[in-house]
Amino acid sequence: MGIILWLVIGGVVGWLASIVMRRDGSQGIILNIVVGIVGALLGGWLISPLVGAGTINSGDLSIAGLFVSFLGAVILLAVVNLISRNRVR
Description:
This protein is 72% helix and 0% strand. The chain has 89 residues and is mainly α. It has one domain. The relative contact order is 0.18.
Protein backbone atom coordinates (compact mmCIF):
# COMPACT_ATOMS: atom_id res chain seq x y z
CA MET A 1 0.00 0.00 0.00
CA GLY A 2 2.96 2.33 0.60
CA ILE A 3 4.07 2.36 -3.05
CA ILE A 4 0.56 3.24 -4.25
CA LEU A 5 0.30 6.09 -1.76
CA TRP A 6 3.78 7.27 -2.78
CA LEU A 7 2.80 7.30 -6.48
CA VAL A 8 -0.53 9.04 -5.88
CA ILE A 9 0.93 11.76 -3.65
CA GLY A 10 3.92 12.16 -5.99
CA GLY A 11 1.51 12.60 -8.89
CA VAL A 12 -0.53 15.22 -7.05
CA VAL A 13 2.60 17.13 -5.97
CA GLY A 14 3.97 17.00 -9.54
CA TRP A 15 0.65 18.10 -10.99
CA LEU A 16 0.38 21.07 -8.61
CA ALA A 17 3.97 22.08 -9.36
CA SER A 18 3.30 21.87 -13.11
CA ILE A 19 0.28 24.14 -12.70
CA VAL A 20 2.33 26.69 -10.75
CA MET A 21 5.12 26.58 -13.37
CA ARG A 22 2.61 26.65 -16.28
CA ARG A 23 3.77 23.35 -17.81
CA ASP A 24 0.58 21.39 -17.19
CA GLY A 25 -0.39 21.26 -20.85
CA SER A 26 2.87 19.63 -21.92
CA GLN A 27 2.95 16.93 -19.23
CA GLY A 28 1.00 13.75 -18.79
CA ILE A 29 0.22 11.79 -15.66
CA ILE A 30 3.42 9.72 -15.82
CA LEU A 31 5.60 12.83 -16.07
CA ASN A 32 3.67 14.43 -13.20
CA ILE A 33 4.43 11.40 -11.02
CA VAL A 34 8.10 11.49 -12.01
CA VAL A 35 8.31 15.23 -11.34
CA GLY A 36 6.66 14.78 -7.94
CA ILE A 37 8.96 11.96 -6.84
CA VAL A 38 12.20 13.44 -8.22
CA GLY A 39 11.17 16.85 -6.89
CA ALA A 40 10.66 15.31 -3.45
CA LEU A 41 14.17 13.86 -3.65
CA LEU A 42 15.52 17.26 -4.62
CA GLY A 43 13.53 18.97 -1.88
CA GLY A 44 14.77 16.44 0.65
CA TRP A 45 18.33 17.15 -0.38
CA LEU A 46 18.11 20.97 -0.58
CA ILE A 47 15.23 22.18 1.58
CA SER A 48 14.68 19.51 4.20
CA PRO A 49 17.86 20.25 6.20
CA LEU A 50 16.90 23.92 6.36
CA VAL A 51 13.39 23.42 7.74
CA GLY A 52 13.79 20.10 9.51
CA ALA A 53 10.93 18.34 7.74
CA GLY A 54 10.99 15.16 5.71
CA THR A 55 9.51 14.53 2.28
CA ILE A 56 7.06 12.05 0.80
CA ASN A 57 10.03 9.83 -0.05
CA SER A 58 10.96 9.52 3.62
CA GLY A 59 7.38 8.74 4.60
CA ASP A 60 6.58 12.16 6.09
CA LEU A 61 2.99 12.92 5.11
CA SER A 62 2.68 16.06 7.22
CA ILE A 63 1.90 19.48 5.79
CA ALA A 64 5.58 20.47 6.09
CA GLY A 65 6.67 17.28 4.32
CA LEU A 66 4.24 17.85 1.47
CA PHE A 67 5.32 21.48 1.18
CA VAL A 68 9.02 20.51 1.01
CA SER A 69 8.19 17.96 -1.71
CA PHE A 70 6.17 20.59 -3.59
CA LEU A 71 9.00 23.14 -3.41
CA GLY A 72 11.45 20.54 -4.69
CA ALA A 73 9.15 19.79 -7.64
CA VAL A 74 8.83 23.52 -8.42
CA ILE A 75 12.64 23.88 -8.34
CA LEU A 76 12.97 20.88 -10.65
CA LEU A 77 10.51 22.35 -13.16
CA ALA A 78 12.26 25.74 -12.99
CA VAL A 79 15.57 24.07 -13.90
CA VAL A 80 13.88 22.15 -16.73
CA ASN A 81 12.36 25.42 -18.01
CA LEU A 82 15.78 27.09 -18.02
CA ILE A 83 17.38 24.18 -19.88
CA SER A 84 14.60 23.77 -22.45
CA ARG A 85 14.36 27.50 -23.12
CA ASN A 86 17.98 27.65 -24.30
CA ARG A 87 17.63 24.64 -26.59
CA VAL A 88 17.65 25.36 -30.33
CA ARG A 89 14.64 23.92 -32.13
